């Protein structure tokens, strides 16, 4: 038997990284969420080799003051909550203070930022088993740039699970789409291996929002969708649902957000399936982009580190509201629209 010893900070972070950093796409998710939490309305994403070799995300958010830079890289350090009560109604996408520490333990990560009231930007990275931070002045406009290189270079077992460049980039692009469809006021650019893949201006009007959806999902969707906007005293559901005739062989165009956060939830999936049951052919999948809004105190997002799972206080009333709203919307569609399935 070996004696008990304390894990080094890097090793502890690498173990924690197992939960949130699965692949380049998970890094992009965490970094984009940080940019959005910082109030950025412009985010540029540059990726090489499916995100394995390089992910560089630059935002024009609030930035990070020089004295906080080292803390930003350390575990359990966050500016987003400070007490348990805050967790009861968390309004930010992040709150665990783990992402940057985790990512920088399994890659070469540098953080460069400038914030209001400083005359220059600063750059920081973590080194060695204790992840001591090293910082130096570096010019940067107000905002933050995170540069991650060589994901899993020091954790070969993890690297083995990475797939082809194409597959990894596909996952990464999906993460960008998912966030772009819930933050219309933010402009995004995505470049892969020096090629521009997406260039999305901030969308303010409904027409601009629909244009963004069409660009990202399908040019035909808006001609084949019903607009939803329904409010009860406690809940609001709005967005677009595809006509039954616009169904898909795969469940690949389904976006559901709860208070701006993309979620996967069995109760929600069930309510939607029920609503489409009588109008959809067996084995087909509906298309939807839907936003559910409710009092944040009514949802627990602290179920899993990736925060894709949630728990509703009153799941039954959420289910009923979803089902009845969608059911009514679909019933209002002319019956001749529902005769034959599309491709
Ligand atoms: P969390 O998002 O859960 O707080 P992170 O490890 O993702 O934890 O980030 C740690 C902290 O670093 C954040 O709380 C925030 O204060 C700061 N931070 C990270 N990214 C940015 C960014 N792009 N702009 C401004 N601040 C940031
Ligand atoms: Mg975060």
From TrEMBL:
Signal peptide: none annotated. Residues 213-331 form the DNA mismatch repair protein S5 domain. Keywords: DNA damage, DNA repair. GO terms for molecular function: ATP binding; ATP hydrolysis activity; ATP-dependent DNA damage sensor activity; mismatched DNA binding. This is DNA mismatch repair protein MutL. GO terms for biological process: mismatch repair. Belongs to the DNA mismatch repair MutL/HexB family. Coiled coil: none annotated. The chain holds residues 1 to 343 of 642 of the full protein. GO terms for cellular component: mismatch repair complex. The keyword DNA damage applies. It comes from the Bacteria. This protein is involved in the repair of mismatches in DNA. It is required for dam-dependent methyl-directed DNA mismatch repair. May act as a 'molecular matchmaker', a protein that promotes the formation of a stable complex between two or more DNA-binding proteins in an ATP-dependent manner without itself being part of a final effector complex.
